[in-house]
Each structure stands twice: as C-alpha cells, then as structure tokens.
From TrEMBL:
<feature type="domain" description="WYL">
    <location>
        <begin position="98"/>
        <end position="165"/>
    </location>
</feature>
<protein>
    <submittedName>
        <fullName>WYL domain-containing protein</fullName>
    </submittedName>
</protein>
<dbReference type="InterPro" id="IPR026881">
    <property type="entry name" value="WYL_dom"/>
</dbReference>
<dbReference type="InterPro" id="IPR051534">
    <property type="entry name" value="CBASS_pafABC_assoc_protein"/>
</dbReference>
<dbReference type="Pfam" id="PF13280">
    <property type="entry name" value="WYL"/>
</dbReference>
Amino acid sequence: MAYIRQALAEYNVGVIDDQNGTYCLTQQSDVHDLEMVLAASHVLLGSRALTGAELNRTLDFLSTGLSPSMQTLVHEQLTLSRGSYTPLSRAKPLLARLREISTSIDHNEKLVFTYQSSHAGEPTPRVQHAQPVALFFETYYFYVAMWNRQRHSYLLYRLDRIVDILTKTTGERLAYAQRFSLQDHRRQTYLLDTGELTRIRFVYRNYVQTALDYFPGSYVVDRHPDGSHVIEAYVKVGGAMLWLLSQGTAVKVLSPLSLVKQMRTTLAAVLAQYPKIEDK
C-alpha cells in the first residue's frame, strides 16, 4: 500500500481512502473541496436568506462533487446547523429570481416591475421603471442596484420585495464613470445606503478590530493611554449612525461637528423616552 500511495502521489492521480478495511481511490483535492463546501455551507446557513426548501437544495448541490464518504461527513457535520436554520420571517423563494435578474444585467435590460416598499405610506406594491446593473448579498438580503429613470439616480431594491416583473426591454448604455460602484458601496455603507459621504472621526473603547471590520477602509489615527483608539472612516452618515449609536458609551464621535450634533440630538430624544424613575 505504501508503494501504491507513493505512485499515486507522484502522478497526482488521487489518494487512497481507508474505510474500515475497504480502500477507495479519491481525488487528490477531495479534502480541500470538503473544506470549501463546509465554509460555503455555513455562510449560507448564517445568511437566513433562502426558504428551507431552497436551502436544502443548495446545500445538497454543494456536496455533490465530493466522494460518498466526504458527503456523509458533511451531512454529519452540518446536521445541527441545518436543524437550527431560521429563515427570515417572510422568506420567499429567490433562486429563480436571482437567475432572472442576473440575466437581465447580462443582457442590459430595462425592467418594469411591481415593488413592495418598506415605507408605511406605501402599503401596496407600486410600479417601478429601472435598469439593474449589480446584484449582491448583504446582511440577510439580496439587493439589486438599479438606475431609476424617474429619479435619475441609482437606487437599491431588495430582491425579495420585487413582486412581479411585468416587462423587459432593451436598456440604455450607461456611462461607465457614472455607474454604480459596488466597491464604494461596501466601503462607505453600513446597513443603510443613506446620508452624505462624510469623513468621520470617533473614539472607540472596545476591541478596535470590531470597528475596523464594520467600516472597510477605516484606520486608526491615534491611540490613547486608556487603550481606546481614534478611528477615521469615510462613510455614508445615515447608516454609520446606526452602528455608532449601537455601541453606547464605547463610542464618542469627534468630528464632523454636524455628526456630533446629530448624535446629541438623537441620544437626547432616546433619553426623553425614559422618564426618571424615583428609587423607593
């Protein structure tokens, strides 16, 4: 067996897999494929984006290229995670719509579709006219960046809120320099793609890497004796405020002054909701 293993390794044919005294020839990359399948599966399980049926189909597909023994191993290692999978409260089938939107982007098509807004003043789906240019996943949801003809700007639409695609027509050739930049979006946006692009500075008193991970492209400009760090980031303020407010006393905004004022106003309004309770 040692000679056989050596020969297989020399010619990069595969490896011998010992299964209780039965020997099977498997691909050399089988172990590495297993690692990638496990990683992709756990990311998918953590996304919560797919329905239970679509999730199971996708996970089963990911492991189809593995050997039977590796498929069994994947099944065993994902049993707990699959059993505890919790889809979004109103999860909708998305795989067919993902393919449809991706095809429209490739074919440079304009769409007329009905869209369910999250605004309370729009309880029913409304007709939209827009051209999709980018499709991506972010924090539980798939998003489609589209050029909206009526507003003459790029807007983000949640894929699961697109109700029906009514028509498809040949789209416009959008100027490349003015196209939606997914790279900029990922660097500048936290949760909400709102607010002016602004360079901000804040003191962070918790583990510094946490803040740097939430704001890609941010960096440390100073370190205080108490272990806190001064961080600078170039972000869209509307979304960034959600994270800054979530950190409580671990964050102190330093600049710009307009953001300091926004933080003070918001925190004062939050405090006003909780009247002082006298100790008895």
